[in-house]
Amino acid sequence: MVRALRLLVVLSLIAAAVFWGLSNWRNAVLLLVGSAISGSSLWEWMRLITAINQQMDSGQTPRPMGMILFGFFARLCLTLVVLYGSLKYLHGTVLALAAGLGLGLLSLSFEALRLLKRPTA
Question: How many structural domains are present in the chain?
């Protein structure tokens, strides 16, 4: 998951430069906002899955799920506020925001395929 986040950062910077060069800075910022939302979503899912795995594993002390779930839903609410605010005040295209969100899916899919192709030992 960390490799997917690194790939997301690299792809986001390249795509933002392309968007800035082809259209305007507002679309580049919207792409970066969408990428930041994707990155925070990937990070929050990683924390949630780690906590669930610790709950199921009998050898480790489990994390308190209440705070993790609260953080998960608080991030979802913050995401809605950021999406609304960025679209309202930046006046860019929704496609740039969707491209930033799609970069997260692309980087996660790329890393998943890379793990599937890796030989098992």
Answer: 1
Rounded to 10 deg, the angle between the 65-90 and 94-117 helix axes is 140
pTM: 0.83
SS3 1: coil
Q: Which domain holds residue 112?
A: 2-117
Instruction: Return d(Cα 39, Cα 101) in angstroms, integer.
Output: 9
pLDDT tens digit string along 38-90?
999 888 888 888 888 877 776 667 667 788 788 888 988 999 999 899 988 98
In a 13 Å sphere around the CA of 121, the CA atoms on its Cβ side amount to 0
Return d(Cα 36, Cα 29) in angstroms, integer: 10
The pair of three-digit structure tokens given for residue 42, joined into one six-digit string? 């990937």
Condensed to tens digits (0 to 9), the pLDDT of residues 85-106 reads: 998 898 888 899 899 999 999 9
Radius of gyration of the chain (CA): 17
